[in-house]
Design goal:
The protein is of the alpha/beta class and 449 residues long. The protein has helices at 20-29, 49-56, 80-93, 103-107, 109-116, 129-137, 174-181, 203-207, 216-229, 245-258, 277-283, 298-303, 310-322, 340-350, 371-378, 401-412, 424-436; strands at residues 2-7, 34-39, 60-64, 98-101, 120-122, 148-150, 185-188, 191-192, 212-213, 233-236, 264-268, 286-294, 326-333, 357-362, 418-420. Helix 9 (216-229) crosses helix 10 (245-258) and helix 10 (245-258) packs parallel to helix 11 (277-283). Bound molecules: cobalamin and iron/sulfur cluster (SF4).
Length: 449
């Protein structure tokens, strides 16, 4: 079959993100089918999809739905409306079935399928697309394929794949050049899953709650391919790169052994690391550490069920700085139990973090399959049948989101390294201009104070 895979994500905040998931889907199906990836970031406008369809004449069209909204209370943006425009355009030019997948889709499969009036969806890992294609080719019933959902058949959440997974990077695809010319950043996965249970987090639902590690040599080989393709930087997409200290150390050692020489960044949990951990990382090319710190009050860290306390944050922060790394912390304020005292404690402890950039998200989006969903339900903030595709943010009884935003804004005044939300369009424009001037990578290091 001829399969057209489309990345529908055109969000450029904080920067355009290479659609890595489609490389995994492509690798899983390319052995038996002809695959083409088309990225809306790389097309002149939405309507240009017509030319792509006319030339390729796909039998089936897969669309990656990464972002549902930007989860930003300060500057909220939803993307379902623009995805609907894209799907309506595709329907004008093709009668082929449309299959949805992706991380955003996996959080709200039934709601998104209905809103976009697509034919099929695959919850979770897109490698299962091959099973759907085989069934469609043989005109077999698709309802027993794990994770496959239709507008008539609801699906169970599938168990994560227990086989290895691989991506294929097509250096001839023009969308690769789009990202190489704008910042030169590509991305890489070293494992799937997260074995923690933070109350608000969707990642264990999307990727599974057991860590599935990719052999370090394989990760290094993939990194080398990105390097050979012209990447100037790569970002590791794992929920927390240090979720397994031994594996991440072995990955870093493999980068050194096999000659990965471009810089990279990753998300880390601010846990106290083993001796010399960050020094080994620096030696392997790590330049940027993004800590998912969320709060600097032990009461709130416990409420969020974070796997660390504030003394671990100070420890990890110092060791990363001492190793010469650029350090950023992400905060998520306003969860269950947040009040004036916990916010004051967080802000005054943050003041003790030197040489860093701080990103503040004021409000927790309520997602299905999370403990926060159950808390919000029990507190009557949402009801059982409520559609929460349109973002709903948890409200702490003691402190409103507005009050939190006001207090953080007052604190942030005059400090370039305190950023509320993802930075919005203004930041995206600055990043884009710097990319045009030849800068590469994350660029928030220019804000460090
Ligand atoms: C890494 C990451 C980032 C990094 C990206 C860095 C980089 N250079 O790549 C950064 C920090 C920049 C980032 C930013 C944002 N992110 Co983010 N990010 C992630 C994260 C952790 C991993 C995404 C990833 O690359 N996974 C690895 C790839 C291989 O997996 P995948 O794309 O999901 O693909 C698999 C399946 O989904 C499926 N699949 C994918 N496409 C398709 C298509 C078809 C047809 C099929 C069948 C299957 C399929 O198959 C693939 C292989 O199994 C996810 C959470 C998660 N665990 O998924 C959030 C996530 C995608 N991000 C999210 C959001 C909201 C954002 C931001 C809007 C936040 C903000 N306000 O800044 C921005 C948007 C950036 C942009 N321009 O789009 C949300 C999206 C859901 C939502 N609420 O809308 C997620 C799910 C986190 C969450 N809150 O739940 N993000
Ligand atoms: S917030 Fe981070 S550590 Fe916690 S469950 Fe999510 S991915 Fe895992």
């Amino acid at each position: 079959m001829k399969v057209l895979l489309i990345s529908a994500n055109t969000l450029t905040e904080p920067y355009p993100v290479y659609p890595l998931g489609l490389d995994y889907v492509a690798e899983a199906i390319a052995g038996s089918h002809t695959v083409k990836i088309s990225d809306l970031n790389d097309l002149k406008d939405f309507d240009s999809i017509k030319e792509v369809i006319r030339k390729f004449l796909p039998d089936i069209i897969g669309i990656s739905i990464r972002n549902i909204d930007n989860t930003d209370t300060i500057d909220p943006k939803g993307f379902i409306g623009s995805y609907k425009i894209i799907i309506d355009l595709i329907r004008n030019y093709s009668k082929s079935p449309i299959v949805l997948g992706g991380s955003g889709f996996t959080i709200f499969p039934a709601e998104v399928l209905e809103a976009l009036q697509a034919d099929y969806g695959i919850i979770g890992e897109g490698e299962r697309f091959s099973l759907l294609l085989n069934a469609l080719e043989k005109k077999e019933d698709v309802s027993s394929i794990p994770g496959v959902i239709t507008r008539k058949n609801k699906a169970q959440i599938p168990i994560p794949l227990d086989k290895s997974f691989a991506s294929r990077i097509d250096i001839n695809n023009s969308h690769l050049q789009f990202y190489l010319k704008r910042g030169g950043m590509l991305n890489l996965q070293t494992k799937r899953g997260c074995n923690f249970k933070c109350i608000y987090c969707t990642y264990p639902h999307i990727e599974g709650s057991k860590l599935r590690l990719i052999p370090p040599k394989e990760v290094a080989n993939t990194a080398l391919k990105l390097q050979e393709a012209g990447a100037k930087y790569f970002f590791i997409t794992d929920s927390a790169f240090n979720g397994d200290f031994s594996h991440s150390t072995e990955v870093a050692q493999a980068f050194i052994k096999y000659g990965v020489s471009i810089p990279w960044g990753a998300f880390f949990a601010p846990k106290s690391p083993p001796k010399d951990y960050f020094k080994i990382m620096t030696g392997a090319g790590l330049t940027h550490v993004e800590f998912g710190t969320e709060s600097m009050s032990n009461k709130m860290l416990a409420s969020y069920r974070k796997p660390f306390k504030i003394n671990n944050v100070f420890d990890a922060h110092k060791l990363a700085n001492d190793a010469g790394l650029y350090v950023a912390h992400y905060f998520l304020l306003g969860g269950p139990g947040e009040n004036a005292d916990s916010l004051k404690e967080t802000l005054s402890n943050i003041d003790k973090l030197d040489k860093t950039v701080l990103f503040f998200f004021c409000g927790l989006r309520i997602y299905p399959y999370t403990a926060l969903y159950d808390i919000a339900l029990s507190e009557g903030q949402i009801s059982k049948d409520q559609n929460i595709l349109e973002p709903i943010f948890y409200q702490s009884g003691s402190l409103s989101s507005e009050e939190i935003i006001n207090r953080v804004s007052r604190y942030a005044k005059g400090r370039m390294n305190w950023i509320i939300g993802a930075g919005g369009e203004q930041t995206a424009k600055i990043v884009s201009r710097m990319y045009d001037l030849g800068y590469s990578g994350l660029l928030w290091e220019h804000l460090i104070q």
